[in-house]
């Protein structure tokens, strides 16, 4: 869940100064530099290029410019969140409005209303403590299991909201 | 709710703004992941498998000398940290065993297999609650057996 291997294509543009024996290495490195670490609404976070499919395609020279464009096909490891899925996340911030948790670079907000009512916010320790079981405390660096309720995609990233209300959700580890 | 992607609002006339209904049509609880993530096009990976891939990449990068050696994107670093924390099976052998075990259960969707391995629920009831799409696909006793076998590979 979350992590997938997908096949993607990218037009990599190469300057003529690279038209020599190391062209292949340059192509692959340029691809990695351009896509790794990027986010898109469609495919999520591109975490790593796994493999560039061989044989590499022929470059197409741009008329009037010296550049060549290589339509590279590659396998990538991506992380794409989906509404409805259950994920473990690390708490980074606790406020009276709710909990902020991260799955890698993805921030998921669990609002106060999505936290069981038998947990109370303790301002002093910046945590949510169970009234039933005092040892059960959600604070910075706790791991919580949440369900993603909604995902919003904007220009370059995702934000997500989640819940720990349902059975089997909440503190883990 | 219609979501706008990528184009700057103030510069592009409203008729040309690209909109994507993508998130609205998706629902992991019914395995609606959209066309890009259908089982033909995308292979879901377990956290253990991702951990292996990322640490290999990191080791490869470290072998390169010069400025490239520590040039990981923050996305990479954060996911590496995440999978190291939540990897339950640790190591190539355990990860491979987990994958082989899961593949035997042909009634399960690959997405469900990855969720199962990553979340490691204690029993069938918990499992069917957190992964609702499983409800009618597998009987409780087979599921309990699978979960027990998975647990035997955990560290």
UniProtKB/TrEMBL annotation, chain A:
Q: Which GO terms describe its molecular function?
A: single-stranded DNA binding; single-stranded RNA binding; translation initiation factor binding
Write out the annotated subcellular location. Nucleus
* Record-annotated S1 motif domain positions: 81-151
Highest taxon of source = Eukaryota
Q: Keywords, A to Z?
A: DNA-directed RNA polymerase, Nucleus, Transcription
Q: Which residues form the RNA polymerase Rpb7-like N-terminal domain?
A: 10-52
Spell out the InterPro entries in the cross-references.
NA-bd_OB-fold, RNA_pol_Rpb7-like_N_sf, Rpb7-like, Rpb7-like_N, S1_domain
An example of a Pfam family matching this protein is SHS2_Rpb7-N
Q: Does the keyword NADP apply?
A: no
Give Gene Ontology CC terms.
P-body; RNA polymerase II, core complex
Entry keyword Transcription: yes
Q: Name one GO biological process term.
A: transcription initiation at RNA polymerase II promoter
What the entry lists under PANTHER family is as follows: DNA-DIRECTED RNA POLYMERASE II SUBUNIT RPB7, DNA-DIRECTED RNA POLYMERASE II, III
Give the family from UniProt: Belongs to the eukaryotic RPB7/RPC8 RNA polymerase subunit family.
Name by which UniProt lists this protein: DNA-directed RNA polymerase II subunit RPB7
Organism of this sequence: Galdieria partita
UniProtKB/TrEMBL annotation, chain B:
Q: Which GO terms describe its biological process?
A: DNA-templated transcription initiation
Coiled-coil spans in chain: none
Q: Cite the entry's keywords alphabetically.
A: Nucleus
* A single Gene Ontology CC term: nucleus
Q: Give the transmembrane region(s).
A: none
User: What does the UniProt entry say about where the protein is found?
Assistant: Nucleus
- SMART domains in the record, alphabetically? RPOL4c
Q: Does the keyword Nucleus apply?
A: yes
Please report which protein family the annotation says this sequence is part of.
Answer: Belongs to the eukaryotic RPB4 RNA polymerase subunit family.
Q: What is this protein called?
A: RNA polymerase Rpb4/RPC9 core domain-containing protein
Query: What is the organism field in this record?
Result: Galdieria partita
């Amino acid at each position: 869940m979350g992590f997938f291997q997908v096949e993607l294509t990218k037009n990599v543009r190469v300057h003529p100064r690279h038209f020599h024996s190391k062209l292949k290495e340059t192509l692959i490195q340029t691809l990695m530099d351009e896509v790794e670490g990027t986010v898109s609404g469609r495919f999520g976070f591109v975490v790593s290029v796994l493999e560039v499919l061989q044989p590499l395609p022929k470059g197409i020279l741009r008329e009037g410019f010296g550049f060549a464009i290589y339509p590279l096909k590659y396998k990538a490891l991506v992380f794409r969140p989906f509404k409805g899925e259950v994920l473990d996340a690390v708490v980074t911030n606790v406020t009276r409005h709710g909990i902020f948790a991260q799955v890698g670079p993805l921030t998921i907000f669990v609002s106060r209303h999505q936290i069981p009512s038998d947990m109370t916010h303790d301002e002093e320790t910046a945590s949510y403590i169970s009234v039933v079981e005092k040892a059960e405390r959600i604070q910075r660096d706790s791991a919580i299991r949440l369900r993603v309720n909604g995902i919003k995609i904007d220009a370059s990233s995702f934000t997500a909201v989640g819940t720990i209300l349902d059975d089997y959700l909440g503190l883990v580890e | 709710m219609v979501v706008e992607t990528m184009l700057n609002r103030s510069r592009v006339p409203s008729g040309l703004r690209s909109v994507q209904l993508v998130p609205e049509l998706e629902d992991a609880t019914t395995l609606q992941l959209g066309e890009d993530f259908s089982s033909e096009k995308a292979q879901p990976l377990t956290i253990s498998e991702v951990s292996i891939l990322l640490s290999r990449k990191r080791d490869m990068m470290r072998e390169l000398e010069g400025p490239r050696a520590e040039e990981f994107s923050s996305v990479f670093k954060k996911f590496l940290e995440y999978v190291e924390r939540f990897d339950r099976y640790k190591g190539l052998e355990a990860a491979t065993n987990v994958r082989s075990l899961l593949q035997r259960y042909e009634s399960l969707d690959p997405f469900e297999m990855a969720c199962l391995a990553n979340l490691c629920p204690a029993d069938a009831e918990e499992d069917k609650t957190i992964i609702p799409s499983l409800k009618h696909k597998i009987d409780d006793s087979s599921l309990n057996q699978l979960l027990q076998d998975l647990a035997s590979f955990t560290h």
